[in-house]
Specification:
- The complex is a heterodimer of chains A (294) and B (231).
- Chain A has 294 residues and is α/β, with parallel strands linked by helices.
- Chain A folds into two domains: 2-122, Glutathione S-transferase Yfyf (Class Pi), Chain A, domain 2 (Up-down Bundle), CATH 1.20.1050.140; 132-293, Rossmann fold, CATH 3.40.50.11810.
- In chain A, 47% of the residues lie in helices and 11% in strands.
- Chain A contains 14 helices and eight strands.
- In chain A, the strands form two sheets. Chain A has a four-stranded parallel sheet with strand order 2-1-3-4. A four-stranded parallel sheet of chain A has the order 6-5-7-8, sandwiched between helices.
- Chain B has a five-stranded mixed sheet, covered by helices on one side.
- Chain B is flat and about 60 Å long.
- Chain B has three domains: 3-80, Ubiquitin-like (UB roll) (Roll); 93-182, Fumarate Reductase Iron-sulfur Protein, Chain B, domain 2, CATH 1.10.1060.10; 187-221, no CATH class.
- Classes of the chains: A alpha/beta (294), B alpha+beta (231).
- At the A-B interface, helix 2 of A face helix 4 of B.
- Bound molecules: iron/sulfur cluster (SF4) (2 copies) and FE2/S2 (inorganic) cluster.
- The site of one iron/sulfur cluster has 16 residues of chain B, from helix 3 and helix 4.
Amino acid sequence: MTKLLYYPGCTLKADAQHFEESAMCALKELGFELQELERWNCCGTVFSLATDNTMFHLAPLRNLLRTREEGGDKLFTLCSMCYNTLKRANKLFNEDPEKNDKVRKAMYEEAIAYDGKTQTLHLLSLLRDEVGFDTLKNKIGKGLNGIKLAPYYGCMLLRPDGLGVDNMEHPRVFEDLIRAMGAEAADFPFRAECCGSYQTAQQPEIVAERTRLIIGSARKCGADAVAVSCPLCAFNLDQRQAIAARLHSDFELMPVLYITECLCLALGIEFKEPWKAFHYAPVDAVIRKMEKKA
Amino acid sequence: MSKKQEQVSVFIMGKKFMVPAASTIMSALEYSGFQLKRGVGCREGFCGACATVYRLKDDFKIRTGLACQTVVQEGMLIAQIPFVPAVKPVYDISKLEPTITIFKQLYPETFRCLGCNTCSKACPQDIRVMDYINAVERGDLAKAAELSYDCIRCGMCALRCPAEIGQFNVAILAQRLYGSCLAPKSKEMIERVEQIRKGQFNEEMAAIKATDKAALKKMYYERDIEPGESV
Ligand code: SF4
Ligand code: SF4
Ligand code: FES
């Protein structure tokens, strides 16, 4: 078992517990054990773009500091938002001397000073670079053969250029993973469209329209389900289907699954009953179909 | 000839006073003629009534402490904070579920925490205040209750928080929910409550009530502090 220092983030402890659990099950099967950071705080939620933003970078940097305190130099994340915020804060820390100086001074009470050396590692990079899709494919075999999944990247996994898990304009990591699981990856034009993000709090209707577009496009491609890796995308694409259905009588619900839930099914790990309750669009039928294949 | 007590100068709300060097901020206030009606309680560092803010000479940092526990220093600038007006909604604890939802309703500002850690810097009890607020944010009430256990509600964290959170009241709610819904029940406590209900201690209680102050004090200091183990 390889141990990974793991940063869950708040959502995985609340609305996305099935994301964390399914990731742990699948990764265990692949030889990785997630060791949650002893001390951690909110990642900061979004990377602040304001000019006077020093205060907002303390939260992510503190988690990177905790990683160093606990003897690590790599911090593993599942949530795309956390991944993005942590990674960008670190870049800023290392590349902006003025901000670096300010945040260091603001963190004078910490036992050690942060050195900028924590690498943030996302699930998709781990599967691609450390497990390897060929190895995964060999292990899985036929897996989800006959299932078509629409890979939804959203924004936070890919942007800004150079910090994402893959090429910003032509990503393929999600598709490659889906293929390694034996499934077919839908060629899906809305795969990197914004889901509407935090508009969901103030103006859910805007998000419901995005959801309708994105889900509609996945349906046109013949997908059985949409696969995601971000709890906010998951919330918007799944829970907001309720409003989309209310506003558009022709809207049909489509299951939205975390990539880790799919991976569990591909690896022959049971889809746990309590995970179902976290989903809005019913997942029973697609899970039965996937279980039969794997 | 008695040796003259060493004195230092302090500034109490801007005015200079000479006070004994070994005094606490609280005794310095009284030595200087202030009669304390608010901002004082146990004088033992337990009640949290005596929150104080001060600066040291030639130091830019705002420091916080308990007036009854902090010894004065030469050139100290002192002010007392007898009360902190923090948010305090009314709730019936027996009707609440130990979930994150209730915090979203009663203390929504909790979720504005920036992770600046100013609260922990301000806490005279050295509590990891930010960490307990973050435990609440992720719904880990057991952790929040554990981390905030030593809180004495002095309010310094709330005054320093840029997100305007009233941390100590959030902590009370977490502790209450943990205590009433999540913590393992103590067998001993259940038995003891039953005994009290049955009136087993009525006579002893009446005897204590009839005891004079000196004898009571003696009894108090000689009492058995840890009677047996809880389950
Ligand atoms: S947590 Fe806040 S109220 Fe409680 S002791 Fe610390 S500073 Fe005072
Ligand atoms: S002072 Fe307020 S915003 Fe800063 S870490 Fe503490 S609770 Fe969060
Ligand atoms: S008077 Fe009670 S803590 Fe200082």
